[in-house]
Write a structure and sequence with these properties.
The protein is of the alpha+beta class and 391 residues long. The chain is 45% helix and 15% strand. The protein folds into 3 domains: 184 residues, Alpha-Beta Plaits (2-Layer Sandwich), CATH 3.30.70.141; 114 residues, Alpha-Beta Plaits (2-Layer Sandwich); 78 residues, no CATH class. The strands form 3 sheets. It has a 4-stranded antiparallel sheet, sandwiched between helices. Strands 8-9-7-10 form a 4-stranded antiparallel sheet, with helices on both faces. The protein starts with a strand and ends with a helix.
Amino acid sequence: MSQKLAYVIVTPYSLYKSRTGGILSRLISRTGLDLAAMRMFAPGPELAKEYAETIVSAQDPQDRKIQELLREYVLQNLSPDPKTGRRRRVLMMLFQGDDAVGKVRSVVGNLSPDRRGGETIRDTYSDLIIDDDRGVRYFEPAVLASPNEEEAETKLKLWARYSDSDGGVLENVIAYAPGQTGERTLVLIKPDNFKFPTGRPGNVIDFFSRTGLYIVGVKVLHMSLAQAMEFYGPVHEVLRTKLKDGIAERAKNILEKELGFKIPPAGQQALGDVLGPLHGDNQFDNIMRFMTGFTPSERKTESERQLPGTQKCIALVYEGVNAIRKIRDVLGPTDPSKAPPGSIRREFGSNITVNAAHASDSVENARREMKIVNPGENNFRHVIEEIYGKL
C-alpha cells in the first residue's frame, strides 16, 4: 500500500448533531482507503490559532473567500467557548492508501452556496447561506480536510504535536443540567464490520447516536492476544460450564445414532463433564481468533501475545446520563437471533461471537475494559510519525 495519509476533521457541530456515523460510512465505502487512526481532540486556543493560520492557501481549489470563511470558522468554533472556557470536541480521522488526499477530497467535496445535490459529504451536511447582499448569513462546513498532500503533511504534523496535550479521552467537555451526573462506557465496533470497505462501522455508530450520548474517546484498535485474553477472561470459565448441557445433549444424540443404543441420563451428564470444558475452550479460541486473528496456541510466548493482532476494531468511549443502560438497550442481547428489531445485533450480527459490537455491562466493567484497551493511547501520532518521521 502506498504510504499516503489524508485526514478528515469532524467539526463540533457535526459531532453534536450525531453525524459522525454517516460521515465515516461515506469515507470508508467511497474511498476504499484504510482507516488508520482516529482520535478525539478538545483544541486549546494555541492549536486552533495555528491550524487557522494554515487554512488560506493558493493551492486550495476553493474560492479565496471560502478559505477565509473556513479560517474564521476554525478560530470561532474550534477554540474554547469564550463564555464558559469549556473546550469543544472534534474528531480526527486518518486514512491511508494510494492517492489518499485526492480520494478523501472527492468524497468530502467543496463548499458552495449553489450546490444542487447530495453527492458529497458537504453537499449533505454543510451549510453556506448567503443573503440578498451576498453576505454570509450562516456557515457550517461539516468537516475539514486538506486540498493536497503537502498541506496534509503540514497540518497532520501540527495536530500530531498537540495530540497528547489536546487529545485523548476528553475530560470536562460535556455540560450537565443541575442534578445530572454522567457516566462512561466502552463500545467496540468489532472486526466483522471491517472485512471489506463498507459503511457498516459508520452505520453501527449511527445506531448508537440514538442514545443522545457523547463520544469523548476513540481509537482504531488492533487488539493483541494478551489484551483479548484479559478482556474476555471472565467469559472463559463461564463458557466451560455454561455450554456443558448443550454439548452433552448433542454428543448423546450423535453417539446414539452412531452406536445404536440409548445413553442414560448419568451417561449424558458424564459426557457434559468431559466435553463441556473442551467445548468452552474451543469457543474461547474462536473468540480470540475473531478478535485478534490468533489463538493462544498460535502465539505461545508473552512477547508474541503482546503484538498487535491482525483484526481491526474501533474503541469508543461514550459519556452521558445512564450511558451504560442506553448503549446496551440499542446494542441488544448477545445472541442476534434473540435481539429485538431495530437493535444493532439484530441488524448486523450473525451469531453469538460475530455480533457486530461489544458494550460494557456495568460501571466496574467499563473501567476494567477501558484499562485493558486504553482508548486514550496515542497511536494517532504513531501513524503520522511512521510516515513522516519523528516530529
